[in-house]
Write a structure and sequence with these properties.
The structure is a single chain. The protein is mainly α. It contains 8 helices and no strands. It has helices at residues 2-29, 33-47, 50-65, 71-95, 100-123, 131-159, 174-185, 197-221. Helix 5 runs parallel beside helix 8 (197-221) and helix 6 packs antiparallel against helix 8 (197-221). The longest helix is centred in the middle third of the chain and has 29 residues, at 131-159.
Amino acid sequence: MKKTSTHTKIINTIAEVFDKLSEEYKKRSEYGFIYIIFSGVVNLLWLINFVEWFKFIFYQLCKFIMKDISRKAAYNWAIDIFVVVKFVFLILFMLMPDNAIILKIVIYLLIMNVFTYFYHHVWRKPSDSCSHWQTRRFANLMLAIVFNILCYTYLLGNGLARYILWENGTPASLYSVLQYSISNTFLLSSSLSVVNAFGLYLQTSQQIVSFIFLVIILSQSIPKPAKED
């Protein structure tokens, strides 16, 4: 009886999952196949986004300590911890010798840095619109931009430095590369300039990411006056 009951539960669970997927497909299919494909890519990126798993695990751990803790509070604390940790690791990576594994980690963090902000503030707009949440969104945007600058500083000055040719020779220090990364982010002039194709591709990719942050997302993230809770 127990085996039959367990088997039935598994079948019912699988059926429920397929029903939900089918229902979700029907909802999305009304908007065309391009939207379905794009939505599938977004959902896939969400699944491989480490911070989402960290939020879930952190919330489960918090419930053992504080049973009445809210999901929102746990998630926000998890995000803050993750942000601090990834900044610390990135700075350490910048001071370490070139390493293929570190390079892959930085590229992953760079992609997910952009995706996370896009997903939670553009793809899925939060229902919370109080002044505290608006300010938090703006602060997170600033941190995301800074992290983006540091990631490209690592790529230009360390991780991918051997593939880049500079007009006046290799920069004297990582600080010079940081200045270049800041200038490239905000489309400012710089004393440094890349001259080979790969360097230009990398420079263009940073400008595209900057466009996403500074134009598309920034317009939705500036705090607006609201009543205090």
